Structure formats: structure tokens, C-alpha cells
Inverse folding.
């Protein structure tokens, strides 16, 4: 359930490229890095908040309509222009069954749509963790894999 309804639509035409960390050498640097990682992990576990972000990169003149909801919360319908994102934050439920379901559509020569799970606890808790990002393109839908620093193709559009 959303602790505080926080749905943000923002414009971000270019997503920043995440850089991989270089191998760490040196004892004190390695220990400091491990402590930083442990602290970040503990903060994440303590806060338990998840951010889901969906970005429209279909094309300059293409708007995308998206509706997302969970069993407890309806985020409503949003119209995203090229480069705009919708983002929301929530805390997964104790029973580990949190699910946000979305329907997205846009008009090419015909109306195209896709129905998908934007967040599914059993898939995403150990997958995207607390930062789940989706990218919508003319070719389909991609999910960000932070472990591989890559965008993985997930779904095609349907007419």
C-alpha cells in the first residue's frame, strides 16, 4: 500500500547512463566500500521503499496513455509525452504479495497496447530491488537491470 500517494510526472528526455564501478584495490578502500555497501543495504531493508519509474521514449510526436493500480491503490490515468516519466514510491506489504498492474497504449497506424506487471514482489524484490525502471519504445518495453547495467527487452506491443 502506498504510504503517501506520490505520483510524479517529470520530463527527462535522456536517461543518465549508469557507470559500473571499477575493481577496487587496496585494503582500506575495500573495507570502506564494503562498509558503505552494508550501510546502504541496511538502510534499504529498514526503509523498504520501492520506486517504480515508467518513461515514454516511443517517439517525438507520440503520446502514451498509462493506467496503473494495485489491489489497494489506483494511480489513475496519465498521458506521457515523449521523454516524460511517471514515478511512484511505496512500501511492499508484509505478506510479500505487492503487485502493480499497468495498461499502456499509444496510437501508431492502429492503437497498440501492452498489459504488464510494473512491480511484482516475488520477481522484483531480488531483481530491480528498490529502483524499478521501465522504458517504452516503438519496438516494445524494456526493464533496467542494474546488476548488468543494461536494458532488457520484456514485452512487445499488441494491436
Amino acid at each position: 500500500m502506498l504510504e503517501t500517494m506520490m505520483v510524479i510526472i517529470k520530463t527527462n528526455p535522456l536517461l543518465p547512463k549508469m557507470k559500473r564501478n571499477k575493481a577496487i584495490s587496496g585494503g582500506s578502500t575495500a573495507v570502506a566500500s564494503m562498509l558503505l555497501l552494508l550501510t546502504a543495504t541496511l538502510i534499504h531493508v529498514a526503509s523498504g521503499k520501492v520506486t517504480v519509474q515508467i518513461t515514454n521514449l516511443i517517439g517525438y510526436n507520440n503520446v502514451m496513455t498509462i493506467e496503473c493500480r494495485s489491489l489497494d491503490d489506483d494511480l489513475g490515468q496519465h498521458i506521457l509525452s515523449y521523454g516524460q516519466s511517471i514515478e511512484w514510491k511505496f512500501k511492499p506489504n508484509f505478506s510479500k504479495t505487492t503487485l502493480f498492474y499497468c495498461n499502456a497504449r499509444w496510437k501508431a497506424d492502429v492503437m497498440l497496447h501492452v498489459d504488464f506487471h510494473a512491480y511484482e514482489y516475488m520477481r522484483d524484490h531480488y531483481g530491480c530491488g528498490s529502483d524499478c525502471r521501465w522504458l517504452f519504445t516503438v519496438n516494445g518495453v524494456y526493464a533496467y537491470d542494474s546488476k548488468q547495467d543494461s536494458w532488457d527487452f520484456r514485452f512487445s506491443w499488441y494491436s
User: Anything to note?
Assistant: Strands lie at 7-11, 50-56, 64-69, 74-80, 84-90, 99-107, 111-120, 131-137, 140-145, 150-155. Helices lie at 27-47, 121-124. The longest helix spans residues 27-47. The two ends are 32 Å apart (CA to CA).
